From TrEMBL:
Gene3D superfamilies assigned to the protein according to its UniProt record, in alphabetical order: Aspartate Aminotransferase, domain 1, Type I PLP-dependent aspartate aminotransferase-like (Major domain)
Keywords carried by this UniProt record: Lyase, Pyridoxal phosphate
Signal sequence region: none
E.C. number: 4.4.1.1
Matching SUPFAM superfamilies: PLP-dependent transferases
GO MF term set: lyase activity
Positions of transmembrane segments: none
Biological source species: Streptodolium elevatio
One Pfam family of this chain: Cys_Met_Meta_PP
The protein's name: Cystathionine gamma-lyase
EC primary class: lyase
Required cofactor(s): pyridoxal 5'-phosphate
InterPro entries in alphabetical order: Cys/Met-Metab_PyrdxlP-dep_enz, PyrdxlP-dep_Trfase, PyrdxlP-dep_Trfase_major, PyrdxlP-dep_Trfase_small
Family: Belongs to the trans-sulfuration enzymes family.
């Protein structure tokens, strides 16, 4: 099975046998029967659970890693911090994107307090290449959140590996159906499963997929020690959601490109960004390494008040702080500390609604924002 849709539908399902369940059912257990010396895959609920294993097999298949090299976590930030803290020992040097998710940089502050040297550089134009000398771990986020810049994963992996560094890629926005960092040379693909992977705004989840099992063992050891484990219900719901992943991301990407194209016709809307736009600054690189361009569109309105009038006028689109769901969401990103964006910057997560309805909602909200100003 090589096509994305077929793999998403069948990934991690149980072996077929007469009378067996079609899918994996959640196993609710903190303790498992065990006599004699510890052996077997399931001993205690903080170490492993059959429901996680099935999800890790499925996610690993989509990311290009085996189940033993994929580690699920209780949230995206549990996965991010688990990977960084497990792999960056005191005295190490870590390179982070200066324009990536602010909470990742916050983990960088924690690393710095533990004696790790942290360097920051932006995503665009592969600027992190200037900070690689002597690095031990390089963290890429492409497309970046929220600015939607893109870096050349294969090129930066080659340069980082020449320095002896591991490379991790935050694959949250792209999803494993949008790009496969491990196939491009990365050592780790990390993501928040809270977003497009599960896609219904009802689960917190994260994962780390590794090219090397020894690296995965270090990350898994950190998870076991800290207890950042996913619940079996969350793992089961996440696995259940994978069957529609290709349908959702295809619809979202098509809607996002349609909305981004339409927004360029509005005089009050500036700096429309989406990697799928042919003349977007990120498109040339994105088109080489991405199969789908994601659900997020970024644009800037003339100031905070204008942006808030626009958001208040939306009817179909929710005002919320996430992305990747079946329903559209938007927010003024400047309301959060850490994102260096203009006051009127909007991050718009495009859902699976009918394209005409979605654009009509945005159009009436933009019109209302102009009228209220007058």
């Amino acid at each position: 099975m090589t096509s994305d849709g077929t793999r998403a539908v069948h990934a991690g399902l149980p072996t077929v046998h007469p009378g067996g369940p079609f899918g994996n059912n959640p196993v609710f257990a903190s303790t498992f029967h065990m006599s004699g010396d510890p052996e077997g895959p399931f001993q205690y609920g903080r170490y492993a659970n059959p429901t996680w294993v099935a999800l890790e097999e499925a996610v690993g298949e989509l990311e290009g890693a085996d189940a033993a090299s994929t580690v699920t976590f209780a949230s995206g930030m549990a996965a991010v911090s688990g990977a960084l803290l497990a792999l960056a020992e005191p005295g190490a040097t870590v390179v982070l994107p200066s324009d990536g998710y602010p909470a990742t940089r916050a983990v960088g502050d924690h690393l710095a307090a533990r004696g790790v040297t942290v360097r920051l550089a932006p995503t665009a134009a592969d600027a992190q290449a200037t900070a690689l000398r002597g690095a031990d771990l390089v963290w890429l986020e492409t497309p970046s959140n929220p600015g939607l810049d893109v870096c050349d994963i294969a090129r930066l992996c080659e340069l980082a590996h020449a320095e002896g560094a591991l490379v991790a890629v935050d694959n949250t926005l792209a999803t494993p159906l949008g790009q496969n960092p491990l196939a491009l040379g990365a050592d780790l693909s990390v993501a928040s499963g809270t977003k497009a992977l599960t896609g219904h705004s009802d689960i917190l989840l994260g994962y780390v997929a590794c090219a090397d099992r020894a690296v995965a063992d270090r990350v898994r050891g950190w998870r076991t020690m800290t207890g950042g484990i996913p619940g079996p219900m969350e793992a089961w719901l996440a696995h259940r959601s994978l069957a529609t992943l290709h349908l959702r991301v295809d619809r979202q990407a098509a809607n996002a490109l349609a909305l981004a194209t339409w927004l360029r016709g509005r005089a009050e809307v500036g700096d429309v960004r989406h990697p799928g736009l042919a003349d977007d600054p990120a498109h040339a690189v994105a088109s080489r390494q991405m199969r789908r361009y994601g659900c997020v569109v970024a644009f800037t309105l003339p100031g905070r008040e204008h942006a808030e009038r626009f958001l208040d006028a939306l009817r179909l689109t929710a005002v919320a702080t996430s992305f990747g769901a079946t329903h559209s969401m938007a927010e003024r990103r400047g309301r959060w500390p850490g994102d260096d964006v203009p006051a009127g910057f909007i991050r718009f997560s495009v859902g699976c609604e009918d394209t005409e309805d979605l654009i009509a909602d945005v159009a009436q909200a933009l019109d209302a924002a102009l009228e209220d100003r007058a």
